[in-house]
Design a protein that fits this description.
The structure is a single chain. With about 180 residues, the chain is an alpha/beta fold. It has 6 helices and 9 strands. The longest helix is centred in the first third of the chain and has 18 residues. The chain is globular and about 40 Å long. The two termini are about 20 Å apart.
Length: about 180
C-alpha cells in the first residue's frame, strides 16, 4: 500500500509541474488534456526500457501525432527532466522516423498509419504506445487513457508491453482500471 501512496504522490507532483503557474488562480481546474499529459509524464517513471536499446543516457523523446488534442499540453513538458535527469523532448512524429521515439502518443486516424510504421521496424521497437482514443485502441496500443465521469483512468495492455520489450511496474498495473 505505501507504493500506491507514493505513486499517487508522483502523479500529483507531475500535475503540479504541468498545472501550477503563478498567474493561475487557485479556483481554476486542471484541464483534461493537461491531466492526460501529466499521466504520460508519469508513465515514463514506471515503465522500464531494455538496457541495450542504444538510447541509454539519451533524451526522453515523446512523439505525438500532429493532430492529437494532447499536442499542446505535451509541448509544455519540453525540456523538463524525466528519469535520470535526461530531458523530455517532444517531437511531431513522422512515419519514417520513429527510431528516436521512446513514447508514441497517438490519436484518431494517425493510429493505423503509426502502427504500420512501427510494425515495419525490425525486431522489438521498445516504444511505449499511448492513446486517449478508446475507439482506436489496436492490439499494439499499450496504454489507453479514458475519461470516466470527472476522472481520468487508464487501461494497460501488458501483452503489448511485453512484446515490445518493455516492462511496467506492478504499482502502475494496480492503479490501472484494467490490465488486459
Amino acid at each position: 500500500m505505501p507504493y500506491l501512496h507514493r505513486l499517487y504522490q508522483a502523479l500529483l507532483v507531475g500535475l503540479c509541474v504541468l498545472a501550477c503557474d503563478p498567474g493561475v488562480g487557485a479556483q481554476e481546474r486542471v484541464g483534461e488534456n493537461e491531466l492526460k499529459a501529466a499521466y504520460v509524464f508519469n508513465f515514463i517513471q514506471f515503465v522500464e526500457w531494455p538496457q541495450g536499446d542504444g538510447r541509454a543516457g539519451a533524451d526522453w523523446t515523446i512523439c505525438v501525432s500532429p493532430f492529437s488534442p494532447l499536442k499542446r499540453s505535451l509541448l509544455a513538458l519540453e525540456g523538463r527532466p524525466a528519469r535520470k535527469d535526461n530531458p523530455i523532448r517532444i517531437r511531431l512524429w513522422e512515419a519514417t522516423e520513429l527510431n528516436d521515439c521512446r513514447v508514441l502518443v497517438l490519436s484518431g486516424a494517425d493510429t493505423d498509419r503509426a502502427l504500420r510504421a512501427l510494425r515495419a521496424v525490425p525486431g522489438r521497437t521498445a516504444v511505449l504506445t499511448i492513446t486517449d482514443d478508446a475507439a482506436a485502441a489496436a492490439p499494439e496500443i499499450m496504454i489507453v487513457l479514458h475519461r470516466e465521469g470527472d476522472r481520468i483512468v487508464f487501461d494497460i495492455n501488458a501483452d503489448a508491453i511485453g512484446k515490445a520489450g518493455l516492462s511496467v511496474s506492478s504499482r502502475l498495473l494496480r492503479l490501472s482500471r484494467g490490465a488486459r
